[in-house]
Structures are given as C-alpha cells and as structure tokens.
Design goal:
Layout: H1 2-6, H2 27-30, E1 90-95, E2 97-98, H3 100-116, E3 120-121, E4 124-125, E5 137-140, H4 158-174, E6 179-182, H5 188-198, E7 202-204, H6 205-216, H7 220-236, E8 241-242, E9 248-249, E10 258-260, E11 277-278, H8 279-314, E12 324-330, H9 336-344, E13 361-366, E14 372-377, H10 387-392, H11 394-402, E15 405-411, H12 417-430, H13 435-440, E16 442-446, H14 448-455, H15 474-483, E17 488-489, H16 505-512, H17 515-526, H18 530-534, E18 540-541, E19 547-550, H19 559-585
Parallel strand pairs: 1-5, 1-6, 6-7, 12-14, 12-15, 15-16, 16-19
Antiparallel strand pairs: 2-17, 3-4, 8-9, 10-11, 13-14, 18-19
Helix pairs in contact: 3-6, 6-7, 7-8, 8-11
The structure holds guanosine-5'-triphosphate (GTP) and magnesium ion.
Magnesium ion binds next to helix 9.
C-alpha cells in the first residue's frame, strides 16, 4: 500500500494522463481499512488524535511549534517561520471536475502550488524545480456539485473525510506531511473541522497562496503587504467550534474562554463590572493592532511610490519625453519575468514555481525608435486570487493601474487559456484599470516554441504521448472555448469506493488506466492547425480590435515585433494626449469674433 503512494510521484513538468484515470480500487478499501458505505460518526463527535494547537490559527501551520501561546507576538516572522532547508511537505486533496481537461488543469495547478511553498535563500528559490517530485494527491468527489450547504460543517461528506484520513495516514507513515492542502475555498469552521478529523493543519487555496506570497516576498514592501494579507485571512479563521463535550469552544483543546482581565471594571472601584476578554476577542484585538501598524507602514510605501512615479513622468527620456511605463501582467507562470528579462537584456528571477515573482521590478528598455521606457514585471494572477491579497497589494497594484500601457502575457500552452485570460481581465478591472487601457492592451501568446515542438519541425502535429497541450488556431480556440461546457464540479455518490485516485504509471501498465484511451480520442477530436498559430508571430488583432502577438521569451520569436508594437502604441497615445492638451489650451470660441481690439 505504501509503495503505491510513493508511485504517485513523477516529474512535475509532465503530469501524466494517468492522473486523470479513475480507479475504483481505492487504496484504503483494498486494504479493508474502510469499506464502502461505512457509517462515519458526525464530525463533531469524531474522536481524533488531532492536537492542533490553538495558536495554529494565528500562526502559519509551519510556524515553529515550540512557540507557546503566551509567546504570541505579531512580530515580522509570525507568518512564515520555518526551516528554509526543508520546505513543508503537503498532501494534496483535489475535488473532481468535468471535463477531464479542466480537472487536469486544476490538479496540475494544485500540485504546482503545493510545490511552490518554499522560502527564498539568497534571493533564489532552491533546487531544480523542474526535477521535483509531485506531492502525493488524492482526487475526491466534489460536494460543490450538489449544494454548498450540503456539508457546511466540513465541506466534504463524512465518507470522503474518512477516506482522505485513511490515505493520509498511509502516506504519512512513509513520509511525514506537514499539512493537507485542499484545493478549494473553505470556511473557517470547515477548515477547523477538517484539521480535527485529519489531525493535521489544513490549508485551503486562499491560505496556501497567501503562504506562498509570504515565503517568496523579499522586499520590505512585499513583506509588509503579504503579512497584511495573511493577517486579514487569519482574522476570518478565528472561529469557535463545537468541542468534544458538545460545547462551543475556541481552541481545539477547549481553552478557557476568558483569558484576560481587559474589559473588567478593575479601575479601583472594588467590583467587577464585566466578563473580561475572551480568547477570541484577545486574538481579534491583537490582529487589529498589528493591522493598523502595517497599514500605516504600507501607506508610507504608497506615498513613496507615487512620488517616484511622478518623478519618472517628469524626468525626460529622449526628446524631452517623460519615461513611459509598460506593465507586464498575466496569469502566474505565463512567462512574464522571462519576457521582461529577454526584452531588457537583464536577468530577473523566473522558474516554474507559481508566484516566483512577488516583488515587482522595473527594467529599462530602448524601443526601436530610440525611445527609452520602463517595463515593470509584476505579480502574477490566479483564479480565486484571495481578496485579502488584492487589497493588501494595493500599492503594488497601483503601479499596474497607473502604467501607460499594459502587455498581457498568456501561456499559449495552457489548456485553460481562455479561463486564465478572463481571470486576468477580471482582476485588472478589480484594481481599477480603465476601460481605455484594457482596450489598448497588447495580448502576447507566449511559449509558442512549445507549440512548435508539439507540431514538429515540418509543421505536422507531433508531441509526446503524455503531452496534453491543446493545439488550436486562434479562431479554433475561440470556437472550442465557446463550445466547451463550463467547468463543472463532480460529485458522484459520497462513497469511499467511488473515490478516484491518481494512479501510478505502473498501475496503468496493469491495465487499470482506461481513461488514457478516452483522452487519446479527445485529443484527436480537438483538431489541430499548426500553421495558424505560427501566423501569430506577426502582429494581428482579434475581433474586438485587441492587438495580439505570438512570442517565445526563450527563443526570442516575436520579441522584436513586440517592441515595435509597444513603440507604435505609445506614439499613438502620445499624439492623442497632445491633441487633448491642444484642445484644452485653445482659447474658447466667442460670439463677438469681429470685435478686434485696437491698441
Ligand atoms: N518554453 C518556454 N518556456 C518559457 C517561456 N517563457 C517562460 N518560460 C518558462 O516558464 C516558466 C515560468 O516563467 P516565469 O517568467 O517565471 O513566469 P512568470 O509569469 O513570471 O511567473 P510568476 O512570477 O510565478 O507569476 C519558467 O520555467 C520559464 O523558463 C517561453 O517562451 N517558452
Ligand atoms: Mg515572474
């Protein structure tokens, strides 16, 4: 059984089709640990060996566990305080989606997120990320398919909760895991209940993304913003749950409610007038105090940034022009940093980790016209981008909103390219980018070299057996996207025997991977037009007039065209701005035009 768990590991870059195969021979059931339709006690009465310290809701799950509750201080390292030599190990739980391509995209992202949680050392994230093993993972029924209220207490049904526990225990006995990552958004109560049931800290999608931001932040500004996001997230996690005795309690061990005398009328009058401050109130108060402190520091950052922006605008480039700023935006891992490095001949940090960039950077570039501009590499976006992050990173996001021009980088190999594009557009609107700027944005389809490999040197479709890259022409992409049903969460019977488990290649070799064939057929049906995307390396525009370009930040394809396009767009913009200014300063027409004044 344990061997099976370890077989789930494979190089991260190529998530095999096997991940999508659905096995009905659940690891746990096959061992007779739990039978299907086993009756599971309600969560509130699950007696688990969970001993999640009360402080875990205040600290990162990876905080130094030796710190006691009395040590709680909101110092700078409260969010991320772990041994950088050994990044935390996560066990991934992925709710199922249909169609399989959507499930594959979600799972692939979840595994990438789980592996991205690593602290930088000397400004670099360690090791060869591409060679990293996939974290163990489990695909389970998706209760959201039925009703969000169905399992309000623990998100999953009791069968799934117990099955995850069984798999987790099995995996844990081979290699200890620090936490479970559930790739969905959980409420505070659901998170607490799952922690109690599984005996491990549980991270939901929002929590993990915030953790990654904290781990990757390098500059003071990014650290402040990431900590603020973490703080606001933790505030929503301060929940009271029903204890083993059925009473509502704050901590997992049923801590006493009243923890301080604050609020009592002990001002020398000799009698007690209040009930004192509860643990919950105490934690809330500390969070708010720290929040106010962080907000005032972030305000400073904002002011400094605004001054710097104004000075850049004033400072002359060539011909007395101000320095225009072009912000490169896009979904995380689309290749923004690699593209900015290639355009500016610099060396920004980039790798396959998600949110490799948390600290925005500016680089100067000389356009073909000789004009000097600044290109800013920014933080990537993702679906379900935590609202706390968007709010906390206001100062950084302002740079994007204030840029003269936006370049939206898309990973042309992403199976959910269309979804990624809409998410980025949504976030841009959310942070206040004007409609004009969105209309004027350049869309870059990056990583076309990978598509080239796919189609083979002669233009004929190629590609490896395991490669799931969708190969569409621009128009085909639009067609397929509109035909594709929206991604649907799947919840079949909440039955342990229905649990799908990511299979090892060995298991597939045993003839259990029926889904492989289905995917082959699916790929054939999708159709390919290798020539069409190649045409994208020449600037073109879509039906909405949005300028598009195919590039490879690695091979350099399309980069010169991109620089020309940026040059052109800025020139047009400048001319338009001048025209507005001219109009502004022209004397207003008056009726008594004939009234010449003789001096
Ligand atoms: N083959 C290929 N790989 C690319 C290309 N552009 C970027 N990559 C790779 O894609 C991965 C992500 O690149 P980054 O530049 O870090 O992406 P990013 O958008 O800055 O990502 P975050 O900062 O994490 O949001 C890296 O492994 C790059 O080497 C490209 O044009 N072709
Ligand atoms: Mg980056």
């Amino acid at each position: 059984m344990l061997r099976n768990v370890s077989l789930l590991r494979a190089p991260l870059r190529s998530i095999p089709r096997a991940l999508l195969s659905l096995s009905h021979s659940s690891l746990c059931t096959s061992q007779g640990r739990i039978s299907s339709r086993v009756s599971v006690a309600p969560l509130s009465s699950i007696s688990s060996n969970a001993s999640i310290p009360a402080t875990s809701i205040l600290y990162s799950p990876f905080s130094n566990s030796s710190r006691q509750k009395s040590d709680v201080e909101y110092d700078n390292d409260f969010v991320y305080n772990r041994d950088p030599e050994s990044p935390p190990k996560l066990f991934v739980v992925q709710p199922r989606f249909r169609p399989d391509t959507v499930l594959q995209a979600k799972l692939s992202e979840a595994l990438n997120l789980a592996n991205s949680l690593e602290e930088q050392r000397d400004g670099e994230l360690g090791g060869d990320y591409g060679k990293r093993e996939l974290p163990p993972h489990l695909i389970v029924q998706n209760p959201a398919a039925r009703s969000s209220k169905a399992h309000a207490d623990a998100y999953f049904g009791p069968g799934t909760v117990e099955t995850v526990k069984c798999h987790l225990n099995a995996a844990d006995s081979e290699e200890e895991f620090d936490a479970v990552f559930v790739n969905t958004i959980l409420s505070g109560v659901q998170q607490r209940n799952l922690e109690r049931a599984w005996g491990k800290p549980v991270l939901d999608r929002v929590g993990l993304i915030i953790e990654i931001f904290n781990a990757h932040a390098q500059t003071k500004e990014a650290k402040l913003q990431a900590e603020l996001a973490a703080l606001m997230y933790r505030k929503t996690r301060l929940v009271r749950v029903r204890g083993l005795d059925g009473r509502l309690t704050f901590g997992a061990d049923g801590e006493a409610e009243v923890v301080s005398a604050r609020g009592r009328g002990s001002g020398g009058r000799g009698f007690i007038s209040g009930a004192g401050e509860t643990e919950l109130q105490l934690q809330r108060r500390r969070i708010l105090e720290r929040r106010n402190h962080l907000l005032s520091q972030i305000e400073e950052v904002r002011r400094t940034r605004a001054l710097q922006r104004a000075s850049r605008k004033r400072r002359g480039g060539l011909n007395g022009q101000g320095l225009a700023t072009v912000a490169v935006v896009g979904y995380t891992n689309a290749g923004k940093s690699t593209l900015v490095s290639a355009l500016s001949d610099s060396d920004l940090y980039s790798d396959d980790r998600l949110f490799a960039t948390v600290d925005p950077r500016l680089r100067s570039v000389i356009l073909p016209s000789g004009r000097k501009i600044l290109i800013s590499d920014t933080v990537g976006f993702i679906s379900d981008l935590p609202v706390q992050l968007v709010e906390a990173f206001h100062a950084t996001m302002e740079e994007v909103a204030e840029a003269d021009l936006l370049v939206h980088v898309l990973d042309s190999t992403a199976v959910n390219l269309d979804e990624q594009r809409s998410i980025v557009l949504e976030v841009l609107q959310q942070i206040g980018v004007s409609e004009d700027k969105l209309q004027n944005m350049i869309e870059v389809w990056n990583k076309v070299d990978l598509l080239e490999k796919e189609t083979g040197a002669d233009g004929s479709p190629g590609g490896g057996e395991d490669d799931e890259v969708a190969r569409f022409s621009e128009s085909e992409k639009d067609d397929v996207a509109s035909e594709m049903p929206p991604s649907e969460p799947i919840d079949e019977d909440d039955d342990a025997s229905e649990l799908s488990y990511a299979e090892s290649p060995e298991a597939l070799a045993d003839g259990q991977g029926d889904a492989l064939e289905d995917l082959d057929t699916q790929d054939e049906q999708q159709g390919e037009s290798p020539e069409a995307w190649k045409a994208m390396s020449n600037p073109g525009s879509d039906s909405r007039g949005l300028q598009r370009l195919g590039t490879s930040a690695i091979t350099g394809v399309g980069l010169q065209e991109l620089l020309y396009l940026i040059d052109e767009k800025l020139k047009i913009q400048k001319t338009a701005e001048r025209a507005v200014l001219d109009r502004k300063w022209r004397p207003p027409p008056s009726d008594d035009t004939g009234a010449a004044v003789e001096l």
